[in-house]
Amino acid sequence: MAMMPKRVRWRKVQRGRLRGIAHRGNQVAFGEFGLQALEWGWITGRQIEAGRVAASRSAPEGRIYIRVFPYKPVSSKPAETRMGKGKGEPDRWVAPVKPGTVMYELGGVTEEKAVLAFNRVAHKLPIRVKLVRRRHGQ
Questions:
Q1: Which residues, listed in sequence order, are joined to residue 107 by a DSSP beta bridge?
Q2: 3-state DSSP call for residue 70?
Q3: How far is residue 86 from each of residues 14, 15, 30, 75, 80, measured CA to CA in Å?
Q4: What percent of the residues of the chain are helix, what percent strand, and what percent coil, each to the nearest 5?
Q5: What pTM value is reported for the model?
Q6: DSSP symbol at 56
Q7: Closest to 4 (Cα-Cα) out of 95, 124, 101, 88
Q8: Which of 43, 48, 41, 44 is nearest to 18 (CA)?
Q9: CB atoms within 10 A of CB 126
Q10: Which residues, listed in sequence order, are joined to residue 74 by a DSSP beta bridge?
Q11: 29-58 as b/e: b if 16+ CB within 10 A
């Protein structure tokens, strides 16, 4: 089942726009290795879940931390519908991601395992990503 909030204050929201870089959630905080976004984008709940499954299958002994959550509803109209008649119904949930956001973290594995796992996760995501290590001062 795709990720989505239990309840929301507003059913439909405007698209908004992504600008700037991530000032929060941009460092590895829980595991030893992280997967950091290099581009702006909307990551759907299904893509996040597919990444989680890929990481847990390729590194079953490691601990996976998911640092993004799809809180934004994206609406769409049915196919072959004429213009007008209001905004469409909520279709999917997305997590807006800025460059620098650490999306996944992995702990309790070697670097080779982390590279393999995050390479598989990267194939599930619509944006470019890179592997980052935890800094020693944290």
A1: 63
A2: coil
A3: 13, 15, 43, 11, 15
A4: 20, 30, 55
A5: 0.92
A6: H
A7: 95
A8: 41
A9: 11
A10: 92
A11: eebbbbbbbeebbbbbbbbbbbbbebbeeb
